[in-house]
């Protein structure tokens, strides 16, 4: 079981997408990870213990963090 994960949730009163340029690499990383079939992530799910963060969310963080500064 994974922790509930939705990219449309907002915890801030502002919609942060309006402050990010449409050409930002974050949109490309998001599209890439969202294109991966969900069935590949089901294999990582464990039934015991505390729910993990969703692998899609973690993959987005890792890919964005390792994107060269020249592209950002």
Kindly describe this structure:
With 72 residues, the protein is mainly α. It has one domain (1-72). The protein contains three helices and no strands. Helix 1 (25-34) runs antiparallel to helix 3 (55-65). The model has no long low-confidence stretch (mean pLDDT 82).
Q: What would you report as the Rg, rounded to the nearest angstrom?
A: 14 Å
Q: Count of helices?
A: 3
State the major sheet.
none
Subunit arrangement of the protein: single chain
The ordered H/E elements are HHH
Can you give the helix content as a percent range? 25-40%
Tally of separate domains: 1
**What's the mean pLDDT score?**
82
Number of strands: 0
Helix/strand-derived category reads mainly alpha
Q: Give the overall shape, derived from the CA principal axes.
A: globular
- Note the beta-strand portion: under 5%
Q: Which ranges are low-confidence, i.e. pLDDT below 50, for 5 or more consecutive residues? A: none
Distance between the termini: 33 Å
């Amino acid at each position: 079981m994974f922790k509930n994960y939705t990219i449309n949730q907002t915890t801030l009163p502002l919609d942060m997408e309006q402050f990010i340029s449409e050409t930002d690499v974050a949109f490309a990383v998001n599209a890439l990870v969202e294109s991966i079939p969900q069935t590949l992530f089901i294999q990582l799910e464990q039934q015991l213990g505390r729910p993990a963060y969703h692998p899609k969310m973690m993959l987005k963080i890792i890919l964005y963090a390792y994107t060269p500064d020249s592209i950002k």
